[in-house]
Amino acid sequence: MLINQFLILGAVLFALGVYGVLARRNAVTVLMSIELVLNAVNINFVAFGMMNGDVVGQVFALFVIAVAAAEVGVGLALILLIYRTRTDIDVDELDLLRG
Amino acid sequence: MVAQNIAFGIIAAVVVLSAFRVVTTSNVVHAALYLVGVLAGIGGLYILLVAEFVATTQYLVYIGAIVVLFLFGIMLTRAPIGRTADLTSKQWPVAALVASLLGGVLVYALLDEFDDTELPEEPVINRTADVGDSIFSQFIIPFEAVSVLLLAALIGAIVLARRD
Questions:
Q1: Which of A38, B57, B77, B92 could form a cystine bridge with A23, CB 3.0-4.6 A?
Q2: What is the CA radius of gyration of chain A?
Q3: How distant is the alpha carbon of residue B52 from its chain centre?
Q4: From the CA of B14, how many Å to the nearest CA of chain A?
Q5: What is the chain B residue with the closest CA to A90?
Q6: Rounded to whole angstroms, how far apart are CA atoms B34 and A12?
Q7: Least CA distance to B13: which residue of chain A?
Q8: Rg, chain B, Cα only
């Protein structure tokens, strides 16, 4: 197997995630796209870890998974709060901070 | 090696198609279910890369917990369960341009740098015990930081989401 198989798959997944973050309007789907980005990075960590033959890549992938879990928890709580105050989670409408 | 390449091809096709559907489908619940396809495929890739513990964690934490959390989020925000036309914003062509430029630059740079670099045929086997040893010796401080982060996120989520 070439390392590039995994790295290019990661790059494609990263680009799809960025597209989702930019183009989606529902805040929950934006969070799902962020998960795609984090997973793309994880593929790179594990692939490079195998190439170098050490365990550090896997350890960092595990840390990323833990941080992603925390991020989703807080993110969904924020979305829930926005839904309660505005009854809508369309990110295009969230412009309270616009000057 | 051939078998591994065939497995990689199948898994990569599943992952990319599911990821494409996650960001394009007009049904929020379907997006969450396609996300399961992406995450399961990536777990398979970890097994190909002889990282069983990461693969197990991927299945347990992502598919077991995070996707369920997403489904709860969809239900609690009363998103329209059926198809909705306005799930993608009007600026989607600009977003597609940005994403394809980014992806193109990344792929070009990777092809330039790692052209024919092979992964080792006989990889060093890092058992789960080795991962654990490494976390609890070399990476003990980041590990404690992640523990505090998870606790803070837990308390923060409760504080944010409770009604007062």
A1: B92
A2: 17
A3: 16
A4: 11
A5: B87
A6: 16
A7: A9
A8: 20
Cα separation, A67 vs A62, whole angstroms: 9
CA atoms within 13 A on the CB side of B19: 32
Structure tokens at B124: 């060093």
Q: What angle do CA A63, A79, B70 make, to 5 degrees?
A: 55
CA-CA distance, A72 to A69, in Å (whole number)?
A: 5
**A73–B62 C-beta distance less than 8 A:** no
**H helices present in B1-139, as ranges:** 2-24, 28-48, 52-57, 67-76, 92-113, 128-137
In angstroms, the CA B5 to CA B57 distance is 24
Quote ipTM for the complex: 0.90
Q: Which is nearest to B52 in space by CA: B119, B128, B1?
A: B128
Query: Does the CB of B128 have a partner CB in chain A at under 8 Å?
Result: no
Helix axis angle, B128-137 to A56-86, nearest 10°: 80
Read off the pLDDT of residues A11-69 as tens digits, 9 standing for 90 and up: 999 999 999 999 988 889 999 999 999 999 999 999 999 988 889 999 999 999 999 99
Nearest Cα to Cα of residue B14 among A9, A4, A41, A14: A9
- SS3 per-residue string spanning B137-159: HCCHHHHHHHHHHHHHHHHHHHH
CB contact under 8 A, A50 and B61: no
